[in-house]
């Protein structure tokens, strides 16, 4: 961009700054004017009330009549400004007894009003002086605030007016053609005119590479998890083919193993499809007003029916706690936490479910167990897909449940609060934005 163009842009920004500065100053002056008027009226009203109290011993709004008369002379008889001024000097404020009609107070208020007006006008003129003195300061402050926008406008204008030769287009095309999304190389031609384009392209390439890495990692992990049940099913199918027809024990063992591994693989595929649909934006989150008390009560009752090996306890407040969310998905997230707690907690130990309000803006659903607990390093990675701590590898699982729960909670604008100690247990709370509640309960 030429110096002449930069100067034009600078003048434009200066004009905008001056307009904004003058608007701020004019609004301030308008506010000061009406404040002064209010003060004058307040002083006059206070003075008349004080005089009334002095003369009658009280200020009675019910039994005292008040009259404000500008003049005893008819306006039709006034022929000159001098006569008008003389008439205004006779303006009176009168207070009388509403029963007897006795005059309690009679004050000529024109002199006082004129004095207060002159004083207020003098103060206002001083305020105008100080406010106008602040005009350059406001303009400079506005210019500082708008400086980043000005620089952005200059850069955009420079970029839009960039005149690239045909050779430069061929150069950038050649460099792009040489790049591979998976390679750790950046676009660089050494041409100063192409720096902005190269930076934008490199940022785009970096995002593509990161997306490719995540996709490749997901596919590799999914393949690894699917390989095991497929290998088991294939092994037992071969054993059935060889000996299963004659050996009833082999037949029963193979059928049981194939059923078990098929069920695991079905569960894994369903979890993979859920995450894939979520990543693609195809999972619909239907938000409505739902009760966390009801969600946790239903999960609690389900757990009592399907899991008799653990002791379940539920704590909910008397008043319903509501949020805006998808009831089915939220229930699925809580079930995942309960299933994990049951998996890692010994038989006949307690699993505690609770609902409450954590602070003025958030509510929680909480699942606490007395299981094997987690190391601090494992807590940092627990929501990663297919991640399983060393202590958890001896238990059945896919490592996808908590990833699904996190996706659900993220879609509801919430987060997790996790406390875990090895050999003591884990407490996981789902913190969600609350909606109107009248009663606040402290978090347990």
Describe what this molecule looks like in 3D.
- With 444 residues, the protein is α+β, with helices and mostly antiparallel strands.
- The protein has three domains: 3-158, no CATH class; 195-279, Signal transduction histidine kinase, dimerisation/phosphotransfer (DHp) domain (Helix Hairpins), CATH 1.10.287.130; 288-433, Heat Shock Protein 90.
- Helix content is 58%, strand content 14%.
- The protein contains ten helices and ten strands.
- The strands form three sheets. It has a five-stranded mixed sheet with strand order 5-7-8-10-9. Strands 1-2-3 form a three-stranded antiparallel sheet. It has a two-stranded antiparallel ribbon with strand order 4-6.
- A hairpin with a 4-residue loop joins strand 7 (350-357) and strand 8 (362-369).
- Helix 5 runs antiparallel to helix 6, helix 7 packs across helix 8 and helix 8 (327-344) runs antiparallel to helix 10.
- It is elongated.
Primary descriptors:
alpha+beta, 444 residues, Helix Hairpins, 58% helix, 3-stranded antiparallel beta sheet, 10 strands, 5-stranded mixed beta sheet, elongated, disordered C terminus, Heat Shock Protein 90
Overall pLDDT confidence: 76
Ends apart, CA distance between termini: 63 Å
Spans with pLDDT under 50 lasting ≥5 residues?
A: 437-444
Strand count, sense and barrel status of the largest sheet are:
5 strands, mixed
Helical region count? 10
What order do the SSEs take from the amino end to the carboxyl end, as H and E? HEHEEHHHHEHEEHEEHHEE
Shape: elongated
**Cα-based radius of gyration, to the nearest Å:** 40 Å
Strand order, sheet with most strands = 5-7-8-10-9
- The count of DSSP E runs of length 2 or more, i.e. the number of strands, is 10
Residue fraction in strands:
5-15%
Portion in helices: 55-70%
Q: Describe the oligomeric state of these chains in a short phrase.
A: single chain
């Amino acid at each position: 961009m030429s110096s002449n163009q930069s100067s034009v842009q600078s003048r434009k920004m200066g004009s905008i700054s001056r307009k904004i500065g003058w608007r701020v100053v004019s609004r301030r002056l308008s506010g000061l004017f009406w404040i002064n008027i209010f003060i004058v009226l307040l002083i006059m009203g206070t003075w008349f009330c004080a005089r009334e109290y002095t003369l009658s011993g009280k200020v009675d709004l019910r039994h005292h009549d008040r009259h404000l008369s500008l003049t005893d002379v008819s306006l039709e008889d006034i022929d000159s400004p001098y006569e008008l001024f003389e008439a205004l000097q006779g303006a009176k404020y009168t207070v009388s007894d509403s029963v007897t009609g006795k005059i309690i107070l009679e004050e000529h208020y024109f002199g006082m009003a004129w004095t207060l007006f002159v004083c207020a006008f003098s103060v206002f003129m001083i305020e105008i002086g100080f406010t106008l003195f602040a005009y350059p300061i406001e303009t400079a402050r506005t210019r500082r605030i708008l400086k980043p926008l000005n620089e952005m406008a200059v850069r955009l204008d420079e970029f839009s007016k960039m005149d690239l030769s045909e050779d430069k287009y061929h150069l950038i095309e050649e460099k792009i053609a040489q790049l591979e999304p998976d390679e750790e190389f950046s676009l660089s031609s050494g041409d100063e005119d192409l720096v902005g384009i190269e930076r934008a392209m490199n940022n785009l390439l970096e995002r593509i590479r990161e997306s490719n890495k995540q996709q490749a990692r997901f596919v590799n992990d999914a393949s690894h998890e699917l390989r095991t049940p497929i290998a088991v099913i294939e092994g037992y199918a071969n054993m059935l083919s060889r000996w299963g027809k004659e050996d009833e024990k082999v037949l029963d063992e193979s059928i049981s193993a194939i059923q078990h591994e098929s069920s695991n693989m079905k569960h894994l595929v369903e979890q993979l499809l859920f995450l894939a649909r979520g990543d693609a934006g195809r999972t619909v989150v239907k938000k409505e007003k739902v009760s966390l008390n009801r969600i946790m009560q239903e999960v609690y009752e389900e757990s009592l029916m399907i899991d008799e090996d653990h002791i379940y306890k539920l704590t909910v407040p008397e008043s319903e706690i509501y949020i805006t969310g998808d009831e089915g998905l939220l229930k699925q997230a809580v079930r995942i936490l309960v299933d994990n707690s049951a998996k890692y907690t010994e038989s006949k130990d307690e699993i505690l479910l609770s609902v409450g309000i954590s602070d003025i803006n958030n509510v929680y659903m909480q699942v606490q167990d007395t299981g094997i607990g987690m190391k601090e390093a494992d807590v940092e990675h627990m929501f990663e897909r297919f991640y399983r701590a060393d202590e958890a590898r001896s238990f059945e699982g896919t490592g996808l449940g908590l990833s699904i729960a996190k996706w659900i909670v993220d879609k509801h604008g919430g987060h997790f609060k996790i406390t875990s100690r090895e050999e003591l247990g884990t407490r996981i709370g789902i913190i969600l934005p609350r909606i109107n509640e009248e009663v606040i309960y402290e978090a347990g």
